[in-house]
Amino acid sequence: MVTVSEAMTPHVRTISPEATLAEAARLMRKFNIGSLVVVEEGKAIGIITERDLAYKIVAEERPPQLKVREVMSRDLKFISRDASLKEAAKKMAAHAIKRLLVGSEEKLEGIITTTDLVRAERIGEDPRSYSFT
């Protein structure tokens, strides 16, 4: 059984809730990532994603000077590093989310995304079995 710890990204990029949305977008671009975990006083309190920026800022024509706190999603979902990838996939599907935080609010150990799940499932396969050419 492949566990979450084997597929997760252990080094989570974080941002302060007082940072601006423009700063968040620049960090996502700099690190080529789709989300940042919002941390305050060492505790995960939210997440901001590319989708948040597109839907809540660009589509609503809101200023990029708004604080991350005003836009972040607060309903964080966590999973244990020892959980199976199947458990992670089920939890993502049940909550209609693409990212799960690994650990807890107080001890953030990593993040696992749908891309990580797909990548882990394809390890060891013959690439020709899913090639479109």
Structure description:
By secondary structure, this protein is an alpha/beta fold. It has one domain (4-125): CBS-domain, CATH 3.10.580. Helices cover 33% and strands 21% of the residues. The chain has five helices and six strands. The chain has helices at 4-7, 21-31, 50-58, 85-95, 114-122, and strands spanning 14-15, 35-40, 43-49, 78-79, 99-103, 108-113. The strands form two sheets. It has a three-stranded mixed beta sheet. The protein has a three-stranded mixed beta sheet with strand order 4-5-6. The radius of gyration is 16 Å and the shape is globular. The two termini are 31 Å apart. Residues 126-133 have low confidence and may be disordered.
Structure, briefly:
The chain has 133 residues and is α/β, with parallel strands linked by helices.
Descriptive tags:
133 residues; single chain; disordered C terminus; 21% strand; 3-stranded mixed β-sheet; alpha/beta; 5 helices; CBS-domain
Topology:
Layout: H1 4-7, E1 14-15, H2 21-31, E2 35-40, E3 43-49, H3 50-58, E4 78-79, H4 85-95, E5 99-103, E6 108-113, H5 114-122
Parallel strand pairs: 1-2, 4-5
Antiparallel strand pairs: 2-3, 5-6
Integer average pLDDT: 89
Low-confidence stretches: 126-133
CATH superfamily: CBS-domain
Q: How does the helix and strand content classify structurally? A: alpha/beta
> What portion of the residues fall into strands of 2 or more residues?
15-25%
Helix count, per DSSP?
Answer: 5
By CATH reckoning, the class would read Alpha Beta
- From the alpha-carbon coordinates, what is the Rg to the nearest angstrom? 16 Å
CATH topology: CBS-domain
- The count of β-strands is 6
Based on the structure given, which CATH architecture is correct?
A: Roll
How many angstroms does the end-to-end distance come to?
Answer: 31 Å
Biggest β-sheet: count, sense, barrel? Answer: 3 strands, mixed
The dominant shape is: globular
The largest sheet has its strands arranged as 1-2-3
The helix-strand sequence is HEHEEHEHEEH
